[in-house]
Amino acid sequence: MIDGTWEPGPATRWEDAFLSGNGRHGAMVYGDPADDQVIVNHHTLVRPNGSEDLRAPELADRLGRLQDALLSGDTKAAEDFGAGSPLVWVQPFHPAFRSRVRRTRGLHEAVAGYRREVDFTSGEVTASYEAWRSSVFVSRADDVVVQHVTDPGLTADVVLDHVLPGAPARLAVGRSTVLTPDGAHLALRVGYPGSELGYTGVTVARVDGGRVFVAGEGIRIEGARSLTLTTRVVRGPGRPDLGELWAGLPREDHATLLDRHRPLHRTAYGRASFTLRDAAPGRELSGSELLRDPSSPALLERLFAAGRYHLLSASGMLPPRLTGLWTGDWDTAWSGAFTTNANLNLQVSSAAAAGLPEVTEAHAALVEGQLADWQDNARAIFGARGIVAPSHTDGVSGHTRHFQRAYPLHLWTAGADWLLQPLLENAETTTGVADSGLTNALVEAALFYEDFLSREDPDGHLAVVPSYSPENRPANASWGTVNATMDIAAARHALTTAAEHAPGHPSAGLWRSLAARLPAYLVNEDGALAEWAWPGLRETYDHRHLSHLYPVWPLDAINPYDTPELAGAAHRALELRGSENDSAHGHLHQALIAARLRDASRVSAALGAVLGGDFFHDSLMSAHYPFRNVYNADAAHTLPAVVIESLVQSAPGRLVLLPAVPAACPAGELRGVRTRFGAHLDLRWSEDGATAVLRPTRDARVDLRTGDGLVLTETSAGNPTAPLELTAGVDRVLTLGAR
């Protein structure tokens, strides 16, 4: 299967449950004939922990003293800035409950012919054997979880079960069951301990044939032909009107609901595809079989498809969390938050290129919903206008609250620029122009630097102080320092980008002049791009984050074409970088940067570490660490971006074909890529050459580059060194010679 995966048995762990989602609701499907469980998730489900009303402490009056101390050489001065403020994790993400359809025990031990499957093109998860079949999908049309079970003479107990691992002991739980002419209405109300907030799950059960009666905490069905459960979750204070909630659920049959949902999902998922020439022998294997052979082309093919499917399914009202949109445990690692200093941007990194504007829209919703909080952060901590993004958010509050000596994430000022970059890339792939909301945010980012950049180094350049490179520190200093390379890159990019997109702003000229006064990047004694451009700070190379290579990826400010010497220094920094704790995001971040620097062997090594490190569950959702340790979406969602970047790269005025082809991809086809100069691209390649078809949506003049050893044999003018002149609506075919 290219556009799906399957298993020969039910899931026995929630991590292996197949996934469906519409960006609001998520479903985790076990597919067990005897106990057909579906864990229901919702993006709004975060447990109050006392952090919900916290704001950043007022530290601005101490900022000047901190800057003086750091500039004078006190390498530990930042350890006291924010001391006494609590380290409070954001509200943790948690599951709602599981719907259970429990059939008569002892009746279904034999499961010959069983198959559990997820169809990426529709979002439908099915399980079946003999006459029994279960179908689950999360509707994009009706915003409900739909579970449909068919079995002649179906006899089962149905319940909404809130008892999941890690659930607090003092949850206030209430239930309601009402029989109806065609089945029943079920409701489960769960209140958080010590809070007026809670959430309610409502289900309409439609039963075809047989008898229905109240039994225990749910209903019992006897002798039915089929059962359809339609479920929705709402979170809020007080007790909602159950009648209104039930009345708001759709009443159509399963087939009608699926028909209404399927085109919406299929259109989005089907915009891009990736196939490998040698993958056919493994395409019919189950996911678990493929995972046992990390070198299989079919595995990379399927993980690309699964990554796009899961990314799309997790993105709607919000972008994906650390766990996407799914968890089966209330004790979610790192609160199941949006970690913004690396993980979130890595997860959404394929959205623009892989034709998933739905993901970018979800990312924009998170940003736009928190700009006021980001303004509070800038004022309270730095005494500045503009915006400063937090390193963690629960999706509700954007206030900075992570104050810690070892990880002083409140000192990270690059976050707004970093988080706005995916929105810029999406604008470039579509209209080429930032909309008013994005332009406003770009202006706010520049206003912060206009106020914040008030100090100079001894050479008269602006100094970024205090400065922090997530989540690393110099070998000979504390975490809070001066001139972290990521901060310099973000400041320069924020100022110049705002001036470009808001040229009429009164400060546009000032922003350009401030950007010109920022210090140059530093190349250290090892010939590597330094993580801190400040004299005397020594490198800590063995670290999972690669924040200082922000100018390479995603900014493209350092590249082999325009800045070859700096690109060489960046490559040296990549060579010296360790993998520290073997986290998946570290490996794939390295791969993205290696692709930009045309290092195919390093891309291959990073992919190999993830594919061979037992990072993927049978669900094809990933883990944070090897051996499936800590459920986490970083690898699953980032892998498609690595594949695309190794085969096609684009900037507003440049196209790079086959820059860093991994060893695992000697030949294949990549279709539906969106370029940042407004063209769709299909690519077919092998050892004998390649063909790229460009379908421009707007006029563009593009500098064409190819990987080492490739010869361009056809351009618009027949001149391989001439820029491509693209005309909207006129397809162009490029042919490359053998590698």
UniProtKB/TrEMBL annotation:
InterPro entries: 6-hairpin_glycosidase_sf, 6hp_glycosidase-like_sf, AFCA-like_C, Alpha-L-fucosidase, GH95_cat, GH95_N_dom. Residues 6-231 form the Glycosyl hydrolase family 95 N-terminal domain. Residues 255-647 form the Glycosyl hydrolase family 95 catalytic domain. GO terms for molecular function: hydrolase activity. Residues 649-714 form the Alpha fucosidase A-like C-terminal domain. Keywords: Hydrolase. This is Glycoside hydrolase N-terminal domain-containing protein.
